[in-house]
């Protein structure tokens, strides 16, 4: 194979790893292959082992990075993984999906002189070492007799479950879908994280005694009340909803970007192939969807109504997309999906101009009358954000800007109900590592609440 | 272009880079190839009594992923028959008349044995003889090598047996496995040695394999001490060289010293020459990288000599020796302090932790607003921007004793420098001070009184 964009869908069996439950497509091979043992050793030795290191502070979960790297340097991989996973139970996922340029690696002191330490790849090296061998580093705590229900098995749910289980609480983790892992399982493209990695983390939570019940959905206040009657506390890690409707003619032909990414992971054979694919949006999810389409052989054009300067995608993601051969059309707003006989033929767009700066600090784009034009394509994917958790209102929770309102302890407006992850927005931007940290804060608060209740009960 | 030629005890060579008696000089074919690469001379691997070598023979020292910072060997002298070696020595000397060809020898401690081998060596046309009184392993158990070098009387006697029967220059190669290197040196000079060379290898156990629990190298499940050499031994070799070249008896005798021990580059060689070596020998570096390294040794030394205005090797030989002093001669009044260049500092804070934990607690962390702060971070703050608000280490100069630990741990070239400052104490050496006031050396009260006089405060 000389050109991976030209291979046929039907891949030879040798590309189907016997170790993986899900179809493995070489075109989605990870962008960053794992470090070899020697590479990891050399890279670990580059680390200065800073004192009070900025990378530790830059990491939202405050992993003791110099310590875990030193342990790699001394061939203490199990110890290294423990250092990581003690601070961040989803260290394996975070090693793959974290925007390290914005966090730990961005703060590395070596940025001043040379290139930063490859902290993410080293973290993956250590965590994979134990997870691939099925080494259990943690044990359930001494049972407290207290029960907690966690709704949603994404990063926030797994994090809070693991922390509570380590403290001895009986945790039931409810997941509406077939597989656990939430966004890690369904929403991160295989290039970054294969399904197996995410599922290993669900298994690691199970190994701590957490009961994982899939196919269980929280839909109403009644179900929440039922949980509250049975459990000492409830944590909501609900995530966000689907990509919102654009409200344009031909909307029914638009492919939901998140669904597209999910299909590429779970049922890749179901993905329709088109020679030309248009992706609407310019955020990280849009880039992910575009990458999948591109790797499947399509010419991909991303449409964004503002300019490069206003894109929400990380700079490195944008550059990655360009390196993949993905085209960008800025100041372009889709106004209609064109189709013939049910088959998409193009997107009609209008050119935009930037106007006054909006309250969010970005200039408002407005259409340039008479500038309509058509971008011919066979499929259109929309990735213009996600709907906020509509369930919040149904549950009677206070919301802030559409997200579930929580305090610093991740407590919602309802007693004994906590929330974290993408469905809240306590700090900064949404990301897996933030969700993990939300889970840690919530676990600490829930533990405090349950312990206090226990003392009262005993008193 | 500097003239690199040397005349060492009458042995002439186009440059001072000679291969030491060791595996790289095991045969005519090897030395022929080495000379083609430019080596100025070679000391033929020790010839003498019949031996059987063993498998395996070497263990390596790796630090921080860097291989072979030292090597340890249990190899014996040449295991090729005497007549083969002698024939090849003669052939090499005939082919390479301008190169130094020196023959290392080691035989039983008897005048007959020495006379016999010396005659054979003379017949080859070699330029000199090196007496191997060094090898610590294998041969010493048979009364040769270090067994001779460690007993001054034996050293003198054996040397005398050789020098009384040969007209060739005789170099005595000393073992470092002694308490005072000058004693065997004096004995060799008394025995008529024309030159000295050092160091031979140091007794060592390289390591224990943590998987097999075997000493390395493991020879059929057993291990033994070996001879330690390579970059890691250079400081020991430089010290022993300096001990010889600052010794009155050695200086009066006028014998030149050939330096060896850890020479890997022209820079190492230049240091040996500056401390008085008349030529240098190299082994481990050639074993690591091959003969080709000599090209840069010659080129680098020549360029450096041009830059420094040295036209010949004798001009630079021993140039650093006048600085060598005893502790008692050093100026107690000299004061240096560490100074950190804030523009170069990358805030790894290694200086801070080193000074605070293990030195004199005179580095503070100072925040951007000039306030002294403790290490640590705010759990709720993260992201790469934290690197911009890192506190900077600042030396509290009045409390700095000038130990230079911080300058040694700093990873940035030229960031921390030791700067001379006016001292508070009178300029006086310990020897001079205690000659005037001997009570200072024996009474803490007297010492404290002196400190009070001088305004010396110990922090």
From TrEMBL, chain B:
Highest taxon above the source species: Bacteria
Catalytic activity of the protein: 5,6-dihydrothymine + NAD(+) = thymine + NADH + H(+); 5,6-dihydrouracil + NAD(+) = uracil + NADH + H(+)
InterPro entries found in the cross-reference section: 4Fe4S_Fe-S-bd (IPR017896), 4Fe4S_Fe_S_CS (IPR017900), Aldolase_TIM (IPR013785), Dihydroorotate_DH_cat (IPR005720)
Keywords annotated in UniProt: Iron, Iron-sulfur, Metal-binding, Oxidoreductase
EC identifiers of the protein: 1.3.1.1
Stored Pfam families: DHO_dh, Fer4_21
Boundaries of every 4Fe-4S ferredoxin-type domain copy: 336-365, 391-421
Subunit structure: Heterotetramer of 2 PreA and 2 PreT subunits.
Function (record text): Involved in pyrimidine base degradation. Catalyzes physiologically the reduction of uracil to 5,6-dihydrouracil (DHU) by using NADH as a specific cosubstrate. It also catalyzes the reverse reaction and the reduction of thymine to 5,6-dihydrothymine (DHT).
Similarity field: Belongs to the dihydropyrimidine dehydrogenase family.
UniProt name for this protein: dihydrouracil dehydrogenase (NAD(+))
């Amino acid at each position: 194979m000389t050109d991976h964009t030209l291979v046929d869908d039907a891949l030879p069996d040798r590309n189907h790893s016997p170790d993986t439950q899900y179809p493995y497509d070489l075109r989605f091979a990870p962008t960053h292959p794992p470090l070899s043992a020697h590479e990891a050793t050399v890279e670990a030795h580059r680390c200065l082992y800073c004192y009070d290191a900025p990378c530790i502070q830059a990491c939202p979960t405050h992993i003791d990075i110099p310590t875990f790297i030193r342990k790699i340097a001394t061939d203490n991989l199990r110890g290294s993984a423990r250092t990581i996973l003690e601070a961040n139970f989803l260290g394996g996922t975070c090693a793959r999906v974290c925007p390290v340029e914005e966090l730990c690696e961005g703060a590395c002191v070596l940025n001043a002189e040379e290139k930063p330490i490859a902290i993410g790849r080293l973290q993956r090296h250590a965590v994979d070492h134990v997870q691939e061998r099925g080494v259990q580093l943690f044990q359930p705590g001494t049972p407290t007799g207290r029960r907690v229900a966690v709704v949603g098995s994404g990063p926030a749910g797994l994090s809070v479950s693991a922390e509570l289980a380590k403290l001895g609480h009986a945790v039931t983790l409810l997941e509406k879908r077939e597989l656990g892992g939430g966004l890690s399982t369904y929403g991160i493209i295989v290039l970054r994280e294969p399904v197996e990695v995410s599922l290993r983390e669900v298994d690691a939570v199970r190994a701590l005694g957490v009961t994982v019940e899939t196919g269980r959905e929280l839909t109403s206040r009644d179900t929440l009340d039922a949980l509250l009657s049975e459990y000492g506390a409830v944590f909501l890690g609900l995530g966000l909803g689907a990509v919102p409707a654009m409200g344009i003619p031909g909307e029914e032909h638009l492919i939901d970007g998140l669904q597209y990414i999910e299909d590429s992971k779970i049922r890749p054979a179901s993905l329709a192939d088109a020679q030309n694919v248009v992706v609407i949006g310019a955020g990280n999810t849009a880039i992910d969807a575009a990458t999948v389409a591109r790797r499947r052989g399509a010419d991909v054009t991303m449409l964004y109504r503002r300019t490069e300067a206003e894109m929400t995608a990380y700079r490195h993601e944008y550059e990655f997309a360009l390196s993949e051969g993905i085209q960008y059309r800025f100041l372009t707003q889709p106004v209609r999906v064109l189709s013939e006989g049910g088959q998409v033929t193009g997107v009609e767009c209008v050119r935009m101009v930037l106007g006054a700066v909006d309250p969010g600090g970005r200039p408002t784009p407005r259409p340039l009358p008479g500038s309509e034009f058509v971008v011919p394509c066979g499929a259109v994917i929309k990735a213009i954000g996600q709907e906020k958790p509509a369930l919040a209102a149904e549950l009677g929770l206070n919301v802030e800007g559409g997200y579930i309102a929580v305090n610093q302890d991740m407590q919602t407006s309802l007693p004994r109900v906590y929330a974290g992850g993408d469905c809240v927005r306590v700090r900064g931007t949404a990301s897996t590592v933030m969700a993990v940290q939300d889970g840690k804060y919530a676990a600490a608060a829930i533990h405090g609440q349950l312990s206090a209740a226990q003392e009262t009960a005993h008193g | 272009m500097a003239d690199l030629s040397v005349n060492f005890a009458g042995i002439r060579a186009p440059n001072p880079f000679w291969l030491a008696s060791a595996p790289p000089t095991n045969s005519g074919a090897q030395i022929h190839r080495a000379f083609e690469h430019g080596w100025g001379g070679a000391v033929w691997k020790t010839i003498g009594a019949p031996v059987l070598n063993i498998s395996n023979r070497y263990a390596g020292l790796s630090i921080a992923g860097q291989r072979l910072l030292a090597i340890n060997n249990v190899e014996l002298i040449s295991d090729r028959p005497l007549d083969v070696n002698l024939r090849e020595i003669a052939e090499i000397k005939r082919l390479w008349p301008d190169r130094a060809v020196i023959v290392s020898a080691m035989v039983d401690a008897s005048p007959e044995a020495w006379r016999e081998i010396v005659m054979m060596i003379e017949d080859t046309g070699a330029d000199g003889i090196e007496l191997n009184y060094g090898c610590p392993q294998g041969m010493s158990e048979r009364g040769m090598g270090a067994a001779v070098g460690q007993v001054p009387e034996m050293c003198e006697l054996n040397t005398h047996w050789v020098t009384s029967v040969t007209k060739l220059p005789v170099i005595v190669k000393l073992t470092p496995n002694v308490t005072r290197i000058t004693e065997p040196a004096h004995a060799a000079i008394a025995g008529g040695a024309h030159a000295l060379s050092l160091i031979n290898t140091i007794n060592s156990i390289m390591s224990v394999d943590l998987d097999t629990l075997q000493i390395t190298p493991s020879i059929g499940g057993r291990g033994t001490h070996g001879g330690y050499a390579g970059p890691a031994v250079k400081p020991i070799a430089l010290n022993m060289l300096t001990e010889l070249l600052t010794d009155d008896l050695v200086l009066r005798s006028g014998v030149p010293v050939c330096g060896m021990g850890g020479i890997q580059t022209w820079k190492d060689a230049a240091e040996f020459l500056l401390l008085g070596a008349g030529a240098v020998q190299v082994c481990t570096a050639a074993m690591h990288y091959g003969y080709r390294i000599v090209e840069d040794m010659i080129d680098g030394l020549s360029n450096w000599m041009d830059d420094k205005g040295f036209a010949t090797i004798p001009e630079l030989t021993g140039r650093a020796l006048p600085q060598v002093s005893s502790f008692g001669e050093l100026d107690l009044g000299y004061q240096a302090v560490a100074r950190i260049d804030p523009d170069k500092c990358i805030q790894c804070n290694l200086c801070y932790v080193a000074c605070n934990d293990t030195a004199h607690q005179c580095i503070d962390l100072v925040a951007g607003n000039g306030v002294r702060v403790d290490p640590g971070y705010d759990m709720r703050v993260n992201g790469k921007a934290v690197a911009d608000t890192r506190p900077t280490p600042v030396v509290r100069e009045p409390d700095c004793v000038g130990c230079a630990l911080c300058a040694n741990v700093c990873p940035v070239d030229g960031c921390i420098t030791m700067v001379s400052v006016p001292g508070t104490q009178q300029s006086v050496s310990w020897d001079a001070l205690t000659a005037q006031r001997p009570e200072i050396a024996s009474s803490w009260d007297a010492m404290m009184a002196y400190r009070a006089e001088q305004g010396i405060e110990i922090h």
